[in-house]
Amino acid sequence: MNASSCLPTAVLVAGTGRHLDHFAQLGARGELPLDLRLCISHKAGVRALDHAERHGIPSIVVDPDRRVTPGELSEQVFAAVEQHGVQLVLMAGFLRLLPIPAAWEGRVLNIHPSLLPAFGGKGYYGDRVQAAVLQRGCKVAGCTVHYVNNEYDSGPILVQRVCPVLPGDTVESLGARVFEQELLAYPEAVRLHLEASQA
Ligand code: GRF
Questions:
Q1: Which residues line ligand 1 (CB under 6 A)?
Q2: Coil, strand, or helix at residue 82?
Q3: Measured by CB atoms within 10 angstroms of the end CB, which terminus of the chain is less buried, N or C?
Q4: What is the CATH number of the domain that holds 176?
């Protein structure tokens, strides 16, 4: 797989960047045809930026002090994305609402650590998701990869993967089990997107 057959991609982060790291590893092994051109974070000093540097991926931080509107944030993000020749945007732990310009509809994906539409929307992020799953007494949990539209966690779904909730689970143990599924779901969704966009 040479770089010219890989899709120029940006990864949007704000946390530990585990998916960014995983995508870079898959790309380096020739297992996912992505050319990671840019990492964008809305938080400074996060571990995701260290992963970007280690993998040689240019990175920028946008609006770390939360001064701009969602529309202005979107302008900044997609201006940077277009400057870098990016054709696919993968959100992985990016927590701000990001309005999608018309030209980008169907080319921005996100992963969420629940079986949407359950436990999605504003306020459902990080440990809060699995805490709510446990509190409700759910017997299964999982993750969802979906296209991003202009509302939180509500675009068309590409992939969902399920795992059990086990007796004695904590937020941490359940979160780790869900994340194992996330590592399978996101690359699978990217492959489905690539197949659909090349058809
Ligand atoms: C993942 O669990 C994903 O579902 C959610 O953010 C997490 C990734 O965050 N959208 P991190 O960057 O690995 O901390």
A1: 13, 15-19, 48, 92-93, 111-113, 143, 179, 182
A2: helix
A3: C
A4: 3.40.50.170
